[in-house]
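**Backbone geometry record:**
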Amino acid sequence: MKTKDRILLKSLELFNADGERNVTTNHISAALNISPGNLYYHYRSKEDIIFALFQAYQASMLTSLGVPTDRVLTYEDKMGYLEAIFNQLWEYRFLHRDLGHLLEESQRLRRAYREFAREVMAQAYRVYAGLREADLVILEEHEARALIVNIWIITTNWASFVTSSGFFGDEVALDRNHLRRGLVQILSLEAPYLKGVAREKLPELWRRYELGEDESRPTPSQSVELGGLTD
């Protein structure tokens, strides 16, 4: 693996574990057993590293929300979208856990994030159009747009809610099961609009996500590679 990619992977690991504000470039270079100069050869600052990680997250999320053009969507596709959202939020959890601080500190990231939000919501609208064509949801255009905004608000704020609201107890550290509970909120928003097998399967999904059962768990390296950080 190239040094540039190793830096991103290790930075992601440290940011997720310790919080971005608690990790310096010296911490990253020490963890990789490389000199600070070697790190700065590839990334001029920690902001550059964060922005590169955001770009990988953005590419991975938009790819995960792609809609096939050669067939109608299926229930399995719908479930794939939910799992993709969850996996991306977990693998890049520092971005949303520390989002307010990150956006305040970087004008470049702030501009890119706003464009990303628009792209994700536009792509999500295409997903729901595909699900409507597949007879898995029944949604008017204005309902779809409102639903997508509400889902965006939940997904981008859930990590912060888990750690700061006290809803799951005092001083809760974010873990996969807590984050996965956010999918219950998405299902509750979708519930009035589901049809066919999507409605029939809802109680089963609700139990799975509420209990925190975690199937098909990729390793961090697998997920990051899918996000385009490595060759």
